[in-house]
Amino acid sequence: MSHTPARFALNAVARLRDQREEEGIKPIQARGWRAPRCRDCRVIESHCLCAWRPQVATRSGVCLIMTNKEVFKPSNTGWLIADVVPDNHAFIWSRTEVDPKLLALLSDPQWQPYLVFPGEYVEPERVTNSVDVDGTKRPLFILLDATWTEARKIFRKSPYFDRLPILSLLPEKLSRYRLRRSTRSEHLCTAEVAALCLDLAGDEAAASALDAYFDVFSQHYLDAKHQLDMNVSTPAHAELKPYVQSVTPLVD
Fold first, then answer.
1. Is 2 part of a structural domain of the chain?
2. Edge-to-edge strand order for the sheet containing 127-128?
3. Which helix (H) or strand (E) holds 138?
4. Strand, coil or helix: 180
């Protein structure tokens, strides 16, 4: 019997992790790495998140540009985005090489790519604060899933992004991300950024599902870390529940 639910294919981040492991890249050994974790949701097994994975249709797609370390971090929230958005893609960034599949994706005529990045670091003529929801092309959000220092490096040293419009978000709320320390509370985590993008693109249901999924993930992750009992009777679980369907195991 497979551990992965029948209605869920591996998302792009999970496939990327598996690929890196097959290449001999070892996961980082951060605090708590010895605890047995669910292979599918990365949360400690006693607080597994798999039964709470939402299923939502979207017009938008997402493409995550990740660092070698980020793809292995249990606290990574790009994984949540790829769980929610059916058209998801993920690539490891390299300064010296670019994956041909990424270039093909950026040139695919069905997509209108938007590189999500703060507008104050970009020429004003490239910056937009809105998404074209009436065009013939579907929005594809390029998200730099890395630390802020790494993201700036990726932005500066990736010339294939130079032709893309920059989507600069204007968040009205501070970050709710509590899984890693940040010196700037206004810095949103990747999942929060993606939810704002989906909302701008008219994918309101997916934005709401991702917001709730992020809150549920954070609770499961932190409760497991602090050895607290799993509590599924929270407002976040109630908000997420309409987007969750029953999970049927796949029998090989």
1. no
2. 88-92, 61-66, 138-145, 111-116, 166-167, 127-128
3. strand 138-145
4. coil
- pLDDT digit string, tens, across residues 95-143: 999 999 999 999 999 999 999 999 988 999 999 999 999 889 999 999 9
Residue 143 has a pLDDT of 98
Question: How many domains, the chain?
Answer: 1
Query: 5: which strand partners?
Result: 249
- From the list 128, 14, 115, the residue with the least C-alpha distance to 72 is 14
Within-domain flag for 152: yes
The dihedrals phi and psi of 29, each to the nearest 5 degrees, come to -105, 75
Is 250 part of a structural domain of the chain? no
Residue 110 domain flag: yes
Q: DSSP assignment, residue 197?
A: H
Total residues found in the chain within this entry: 252
**Range of the structural domain that residue 170 is part of:** 12-243
Its pTM stands at 0.88
Q: What residues contact residue 238 under an 8 Å CB cut-off, 6+ apart?
A: none
* 65, 91 Cβ separation under 8 angstroms: yes
Measured CA to CA, the distance from residue 102 to residue 169 in angstroms comes to: 23
Q: What is the mean pLDDT of residues 50-60?
A: 96
Q: Please check whether residue 89 is in contact with residue 61, taking contact to mean a CB–CB distance below 8 angstroms.
A: yes
User: Which phi and psi angles does 229 have, rounded to 5°?
Assistant: -65, 150
CA 52/CA 216 separation, integer angstroms: 8
Euclidean distance between the first and final Cα of the chain, in Å?
Answer: 6
The letter for the amino acid at 203 is D
Give the pLDDT of residue 5. Answer: 45
